[in-house]
């Protein structure tokens, strides 16, 4: 059996990010918030300070480890909310058609017309800053692509012989959507979902930068990156390491999505064996 | 039991509403099927046989709708039942198998699960019981090694095997009526014979009536006890299947029977062209007045062009819808 490189590498990177986030208290060298020491400010990477230190002398390595917690929570949870909303709306719209389809389409177009970050900003302004409002804001604003995809899949799958056969065999609408349509569109939905997790991580960075995400001094990759912007020429390690963490996580998620798509399609599964 | 009618269709009319006007895509459809009987519905593409089947199971979708008439299943009128009640009938008491075994199975679900779902859905079984019953169902359609095959996905099975799975699904709940819409068109001839034989045996064992829909008069006459021939939305002739070959009454049926190739005919008659029926089926919106077959009929006279013929009973049983029937 051929080893699926994308699945293994992607899964490993994503798992690494999760493990790092979970084990941060044991892996970190210092406390990410409290151990500021201006004597060690802006040290470049060395054996003592693996990833260097920032302007307040805090250990970047430790902050990156703790930052994984916020970034991954936001990425996974908000994308799950988006996927559930998008699939529920898109699938039902494509399957039922009619006025419900029109309503969902109008809603989707509305969401696409307003930049999602602006919309998220508005929600954050109402809910106030913090992790929970961040999850809600990002979870409610990025479902339109998933919705479009689910609707298009449902439209094309609806006319498939086996969906009609299921109707003839007495399946109800909900059962048809769950057993016939959903499994057949899961591949692209998962791929879009993993991509969405990556962009949620980036959105979190943007909102944190604007002071609406996780409040400083608590670290998230996004806020670290934003804070490092001004020192990018003098202390590049401040941007490189959080950036690398985001890059590797998003890369891992994309590879994982790719690999999952192959596995979720039984035809390619049997081609392998 | 065999005497009482299982399905009675009386004067069924199916409307096609294109937004501007209503036209009858099929009308005056009447037939009855007794318990355990095999009944065939024959006609060319577009004559209305498939929409008749859809009307029976309550699945006509706009722009098509039932415009009138009565469908009585097991003594109960079913044409106006609620969607939920019709769904309880479908798959449970009336099952259907399709033309395309390639596409009628869900590609991402193992076939055993698809069979088991029927027991869960209609018989309220647990999944554990249902999976066991699925193995038995697969064995009953003579799929070898059913306990291993239940885990297979549809693409791992051949066309004949898939159609066997479809039959297993359709017969899972022991329906009273099986509607087979061109069940073997997509299969090659030897597999076709096996599948038909299997279907006939299983239904005979369980007392399931079959409504077989096909354009293949030979096949239908071979399987069914009685045959109805449809042309342009009307049943033009209904006979015992032996009679329809021996002495077709309606000119259209005669044309169909004449256009069948016969084994050995070249030796008897010399090298001659197959007979055909001149012309094409009229479009639904442009059915001719009077008898709908009159533009293509060699025997057509003025009355055929003016008045639509009513059904006339035949001595040997059955009826024909023609002014000049033989």
From TrEMBL, chain A:
<keyword id="KW-0813">Transport</keyword>
<comment type="similarity">
    <text>Belongs to the binding-protein-dependent transport system permease family.</text>
</comment>
<dbReference type="GO" id="GO:0005886">
    <property type="term" value="C:plasma membrane"/>
</dbReference>
<feature type="domain" description="ABC transmembrane type-1">
    <location>
        <begin position="68"/>
        <end position="257"/>
    </location>
</feature>
<keyword id="KW-1133">Transmembrane helix</keyword>
<dbReference type="InterPro" id="IPR050366">
    <property type="entry name" value="BP-dependent_transpt_permease"/>
</dbReference>
<dbReference type="InterPro" id="IPR000515">
    <property type="entry name" value="MetI-like"/>
</dbReference>
<feature type="transmembrane region" description="Helical">
    <location>
        <begin position="185"/>
        <end position="214"/>
    </location>
</feature>
<dbReference type="Pfam" id="PF00528">
    <property type="entry name" value="BPD_transp_1"/>
</dbReference>
<dbReference type="InterPro" id="IPR035906">
    <property type="entry name" value="MetI-like_sf"/>
</dbReference>
<feature type="transmembrane region" description="Helical">
    <location>
        <begin position="234"/>
        <end position="256"/>
    </location>
</feature>
<dbReference type="GO" id="GO:0055085">
    <property type="term" value="P:transmembrane transport"/>
</dbReference>
<protein>
    <submittedName>
        <fullName>Peptide ABC transporter permease</fullName>
    </submittedName>
</protein>
<keyword id="KW-0472">Membrane</keyword>
<keyword id="KW-0812">Transmembrane</keyword>
<keyword id="KW-1003">Cell membrane</keyword>
TrEMBL record, chain B:
<dbReference type="InterPro" id="IPR013563">
    <property type="entry name" value="Oligopep_ABC_C"/>
</dbReference>
<dbReference type="GO" id="GO:0005886">
    <property type="term" value="C:plasma membrane"/>
</dbReference>
<dbReference type="GO" id="GO:0015833">
    <property type="term" value="P:peptide transport"/>
</dbReference>
<keyword id="KW-0813">Transport</keyword>
<keyword id="KW-0067">ATP-binding</keyword>
<dbReference type="InterPro" id="IPR017871">
    <property type="entry name" value="ABC_transporter-like_CS"/>
</dbReference>
<dbReference type="GO" id="GO:0016887">
    <property type="term" value="F:ATP hydrolysis activity"/>
</dbReference>
<dbReference type="GO" id="GO:0005524">
    <property type="term" value="F:ATP binding"/>
</dbReference>
<feature type="domain" description="ABC transporter">
    <location>
        <begin position="7"/>
        <end position="257"/>
    </location>
</feature>
<protein>
    <submittedName>
        <fullName>Peptide/nickel transport system ATP-binding protein</fullName>
    </submittedName>
</protein>
<dbReference type="InterPro" id="IPR003593">
    <property type="entry name" value="AAA+_ATPase"/>
</dbReference>
<dbReference type="Pfam" id="PF00005">
    <property type="entry name" value="ABC_tran"/>
</dbReference>
<dbReference type="InterPro" id="IPR003439">
    <property type="entry name" value="ABC_transporter-like_ATP-bd"/>
</dbReference>
<comment type="similarity">
    <text>Belongs to the ABC transporter superfamily.</text>
</comment>
<dbReference type="Pfam" id="PF08352">
    <property type="entry name" value="oligo_HPY"/>
</dbReference>
<comment type="function">
    <text>Involved in beta-(1--&gt;2)glucan export. Transmembrane domains (TMD) form a pore in the inner membrane and the ATP-binding domain (NBD) is responsible for energy generation.</text>
</comment>
<keyword id="KW-0472">Membrane</keyword>
<keyword id="KW-1003">Cell membrane</keyword>
<dbReference type="InterPro" id="IPR050388">
    <property type="entry name" value="ABC_Ni/Peptide_Import"/>
</dbReference>
<dbReference type="GO" id="GO:0055085">
    <property type="term" value="P:transmembrane transport"/>
</dbReference>
<dbReference type="InterPro" id="IPR027417">
    <property type="entry name" value="P-loop_NTPase"/>
</dbReference>
<keyword id="KW-0547">Nucleotide-binding</keyword>
């Amino acid at each position: 059996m051929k080893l699926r490189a994308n699945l293994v590498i992607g899964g490993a990177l994503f798992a690494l990010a999760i493990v790092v986030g979970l084990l941060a208290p044991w892996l970190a060298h210092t406390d990410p918030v409290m151990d500021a020491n201006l004597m060690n400010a802006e040290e470049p990477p060395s054996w003592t300070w693996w990833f260097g230190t920032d302007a307040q002398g805090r250990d970047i390595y430790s902050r990156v480890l703790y930052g994984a917690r916020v970034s991954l929570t936001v990425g996974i949870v908000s994308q799950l909310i988006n996927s559930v909303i998008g699939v529920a709306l898109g699938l039902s719209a494509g399957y039922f058609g009619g006025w419900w389809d029109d309503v969902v389409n109008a809603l989707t177009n509305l969401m696409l017309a307003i930049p999602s970050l602006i919309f998220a900003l508005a929600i954050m302004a109402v809910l106030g800053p913090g992790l929970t409002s961040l999850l809600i804001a990002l979870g409610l604003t990025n479902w339109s692509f998933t919705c479009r995809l689910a609707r298009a899949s449902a439209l094309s799958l609806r006319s498939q012989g086996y969906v009609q056969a299921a109707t003839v065999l007495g399946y109800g609408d909900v059962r048809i959507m769950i057993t016939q349509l959903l499994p057949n569109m899961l591949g692209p939905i998962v791929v879009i979902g993993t991509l969405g997790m990556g962009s949620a991580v980036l959105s979190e960075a943007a909102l944190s930068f604007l002071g609406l995400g996780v409040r400083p001094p608590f670290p998230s990759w996004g806020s670290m990156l934003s804070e490092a912007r001004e020192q990018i020429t003098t202390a590049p390690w401040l941007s490189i390491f959080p950036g690398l963490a985001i890059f590797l996580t998003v890369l891992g998620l994309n590879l994982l999505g790719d690999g999952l798509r192959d596995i979720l399609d039984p035809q390619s599964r049997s081609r392998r064996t | 039991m065999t005497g009482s009618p299982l399905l009675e269709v009386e004067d069924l009319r199916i409307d096609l509403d294109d937004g501007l006007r209503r036209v009858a895509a099929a009308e005056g459809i009447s037939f009855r099927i007794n318990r355990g009987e095999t009944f065939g519905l024959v006609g060319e593409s577009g004559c209305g046989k498939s929409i008749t089947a859809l009307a029976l199971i309550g699945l006509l979708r706009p722009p098509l709708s039932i415009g009138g008439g009565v469908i009585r299943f097991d003594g109960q009128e079913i044409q106006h039942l609620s969607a939920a009640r019709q769904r309880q009938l479908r798959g449970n008491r009336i099952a259907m198998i399709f033309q395309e075994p390639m596409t009628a199975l869900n590609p991402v679900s193992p076939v055993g699960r698809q069979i088991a779902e029927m027991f869960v859905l209609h018989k309220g079984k647990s999944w554990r019981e249902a999976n066991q019953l699925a193995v038995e169902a697969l064995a009953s359609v003579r799929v070898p090694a059913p306990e291993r095959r239940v885990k297979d996905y549809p693409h791992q099975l051949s066309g004949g095997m898939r159609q066997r799975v479809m039959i297993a699904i359709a017969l899972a709940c022991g329906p009273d009526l099986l509607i087979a819409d061109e069940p073997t068109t997509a299969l090659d001839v030897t597999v076709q014979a096996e599948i038909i034989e299997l279907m006939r045996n299983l239904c005979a064992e369980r007392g399931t009536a079959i409504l077989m829909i096909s354009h293949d008069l030979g096949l239908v006459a071979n399987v069914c006890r009685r045959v109805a021939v449809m042309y342009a939305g009307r049943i033009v002739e209904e006979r015992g299947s032996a009679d329809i070959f021996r002495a077709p009454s309606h000119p259209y049926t005669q044309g169909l029977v004449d256009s069948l190739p016969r084994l050995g005919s070249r030796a008897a008659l010399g090298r001659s062209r197959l007979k055909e029926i001149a012309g094409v089926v009229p479009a639904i919106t442009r059915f001719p007045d009077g008898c709908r077959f009159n533009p293509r009929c060699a025997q057509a006279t003025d009355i055929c062009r003016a008045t639509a013929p009513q059904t006339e009973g035949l001595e040997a049983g059955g009826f024909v819808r023609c002014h000049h029937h033989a």
